[in-house]
Amino acid sequence: MNAHMNSMHRWRMNSCNATFSRGKCSKRPRKVSRGGGKFMSSEKGMDPALLDDIIRRLIDVKNLKPGKNAQLSESEIKQLCATSKEIFLQQPNLLELEAPIKICGDVHGQYSDLLRLFDYGGYPPQSNYLFLGDYVDRGKQSLETICLLLAYKIKYPENFFLLRGNHECASVNRIYGFYDECKRRFSVKLWKTFTDCFNCLPVAALIDEKILCMHGGLSPELNKLDQIVNLNRPTDVPDTGLLCDLLWSDPSNEAQGWAMNDRGVSYTFGPDKVSEFLEKHDLDLICRAHQVVEDGYEFFADRQLVTIFSAPNYCGEFDNAGAMMSVDDTLMCSFQILKPARKLLGASTNTKSGFKSLRGW
To answer: What residue stretches are annotated with the Serine/threonine specific protein phosphatases domain (predicted)?
Structure first.
């Protein structure tokens, strides 16, 4: 086991107050059929040798001095966007996946930490992955981060999955760093190309019909899961409504039911709404990201919801850990913890207070 990561917690979800096990499942997430057709072949529309070389160059960054960028051309990056966009649109808005799979939360351009996650969890296709959004902004290497993720999506479309986060939206990443990085290193036109790609990302995933995953959370408008399937793409993120809530809402212990969100966007929902939703849809767990949590993961509503955040030492300001949740083929869940880099360097390990209220904008 990597010295900088630890399996901190292992548990099995319960269904109807009994231990829940679905028996032996496929080692590959199954092809999605709800609302979508066949998957695109893994490297259609892009030269396989070029794709492999792009992945190699991106991974080789870890052998360079810290902060060094991958050597990619604007044309190559546009190919990644165009090819992955086609795959996203061929797969439905609500992905139906099977365990085993590893789930990661916000990465926010912290490319070296993304590589640390793969070092521990296994580089694709060794492991299946689901990322919950917020790939860009805040960190210094959003381009490397999103390019590697898109490259893996193209290479392994049936094993590697990306959901949309609230930062995969032009009005947000225009402000929080990604626009400036694209403009500084390449062009504004490239940023617009990414915007077109982000507008095609799926927004939720259902694992073995028991774990519902999204970036933000629940919505008062969400009555049937088919509503997610039927959301139109490509689309920008609206200011209100179901899509907005799936990317922006937050759980809150401060009140039952629905309340206005302090972010000024969407809602908060209480433990009662989590329980009601799970019971209505015969689910065991909601898995989401979107908020900084001190240990990289945090339970809510009597372990009926879990928040996963995968960017340790977020923004270089907080001593939070990052986490990755592994779901095995019996739906046993375990958490691997990525310690803050500043702790690895022997810096102070004192944590800032108030993690539970921090917002991962």
So the answer is: 163-168
